[in-house]
Each structure stands twice: as C-alpha cells, then as structure tokens.
Design a protein that fits this description.
Elements lengths: L2 H7 L13 H21 L5 E6 L22 E7 L2 H20 L3 E5 L12 E2 L2 E10 L7 H12 L8 E3 L2 E2 L7 H11 L11 E5 L2 E5 L8 H15 L4 E3 L5 E5 L2
Parallel strand pairs: 6-8
Antiparallel strand pairs: 1-2, 2-5, 3-5, 4-5, 6-7, 8-9, 9-11, 10-11
Length: 256
C-alpha cells in the first residue's frame, strides 16, 4: 500500500479491538516519529513541537479513557503531540498525519482527538516543557463496528463539504471543471482528511500557478492541526515536489 492508497483507506476509527499492536509495528512507528521530530526541529526551530508514543499505564492496561464514549474499546497506545503555538500545531498536524498514514499502511487504525479524552487518565500533559495539545488513538478495528460508532461516522460524512467550497482561483470562487486535474486530485484528498473537531476549515487557492492554503473562517485554535493535515494530503495527491511555507496563507514552494 502506497501513501495515496493509505489516504484513501484511512478512516477515523472510533472503536477498538482487544488485540494489542505488535512490538515490531510499534518500533516502526517510533522510528518514524524520531524522524518527524528531527524534521520539525530543523524546519521551525523557533516553534518547538514533539511527537511521542504513549503506552499502557492505567490499572486496566490501557493508555487513556474517553469522557463520553465517543470512542469505545481499549486504547492501548496513543500518539501525543506537544506544542504551544499555531505554527507548532500545524507541524504536529503535518508530521502527525505522516505517522497516521504509516499506521494505515501497517493495518492500524487511528483517530485524531482534541477534546474528548479524559485528561486525568493521560500518561502526561507536558513533555520537555511543552504542553500536550492533541492525541491520536491507534489500534486495531473490531470485526464489527458498534452501531453508535457507525452513526457518528455517518453524521460526520453528511457534513463533508463540496470541492468548490474549499477552492479558489486568484482569490475568487471557482469550480473543479475550471481547475487543472492535479489541483482537483489534491482537493479530493483534502476532503478525505481527518479533522480535529470534524470541521474542514482549509481553503486552497491557485494564483499564477502557485498553490496556497489558508483558513479564512478559522473558528478554533485546534484547526491549526487541520491546516497541517490538509497541506500534507494535498501535496501527496497532487504529486507536488517541494515544501510548504508555514502559516497562512502558506504557499507551496516547488523544488527547482
């Protein structure tokens, strides 16, 4: 499974099986996290951001509990994102989603969680002086997804935006038929993105051949994670080679 297939197959998993993740796969995820942490420190040294994997530490053998049964089944491991400003949150979104896609390739499900975890049950809420901002639950799906979780998934899908709602050309509204095929591939991948609070706030613009991403109607600071996640999905699906400017509007700078 390549990364594009992983983007297509990834779902926000809200029900977990009793089966724990094998140590070999946890080691692969940890190696990828080590690389991500080094890259984040290199591209934005003034905006520290750190990812970790947290494992079982509670009496019941799990790693975290949910407040309102928004996720069911045992969560044995989660990925934690530590950061304290908008740029750092964007980095956690971008590089955290790389880990999510690797997990998908390994057959492991995941879900970005910004608000519904029981903070008292977390392994820690600070790391190297940085506050915990978000977690990503990881684990295997049960053979049968509980009815309530299917209902949540259906409700979220009904709120999915249309392509024209997240694209502009020269700063003005446009339609997919007026845009190049590679741009539409990127938009389709963004529509499949996980989001921190199940709202997709990112809009992509194409002006003079340059793509940029921004959140003109940002309503919550946790949507900074969505900006990073969306930039990664667009970049991979559109086959862009280069780097994103951090922040918004962040342009994609094509490699020479």
């Amino acid at each position: 499974m390549d990364l594009k297939e992983a983007m297509d197959q990834r779902i926000s998993l809200r029900a977990y099986d009793q089966k724990p993740i094998e140590q070999e796969k946890l080691s692969q995820l940890q190696e990828a996290i080590n690389v991500a942490n080094a890259q984040m420190a290199k591209v934005a040294p003034d905006h520290p951001a750190i990812l970790t994997i947290e494992g079982p530490h509670l009496e019941d053998g799990t790693s975290v509990h949910m407040k309102n049964k928004s996720i069911v089944g045992p969560i044995y491991h989660y990925i934690a994102g530590y950061c304290e400003d908008a740029i750092a949150r964007e980095l956690i979104g971008y590089y955290g989603e790389k880990i999510v896609l690797l997990a998908t390739q390994l057959g492991i499900g995941s879900c970005w969680i910004a608000e519904t975890m029981d903070w008292k049950t977390l392994a820690r809420d600070e790391y190297n002086g940085l506050k915990l901002g978000i977690i990503i639950s990881i684990g295997y799906a049960p053979e049968k997804i509980p009815l309530k979780q299917e209902g949540i998934r259906t409700a979220i899908r009904l709120r999915t935006k249309k392509p024209a709602q997240i694209m502009t050309a020269n700063g003005a509204p446009t339609e997919p038929k007026q845009m190049p095929e590679w741009f539409n591939r990127g938009i389709d991948a963004v529509l499949a993105c996980p989001t921190a609070i199940n709202r997709l706030p990112v809009v992509f613009d194409l002006t003079d051949g340059v793509v940029s991403a921004s959140m003109p109607d940002q309503r919550h600071f946790v949507q900074d994670y969505d900006l990073g996640i969306s930039k990664l999905h667009f970049e991979l699906a559109a086959d862009l080679k280069g780097t994103w400017e951090l922040g918004q509007p962040g342009r994609f700078i094509v490699s020479e």
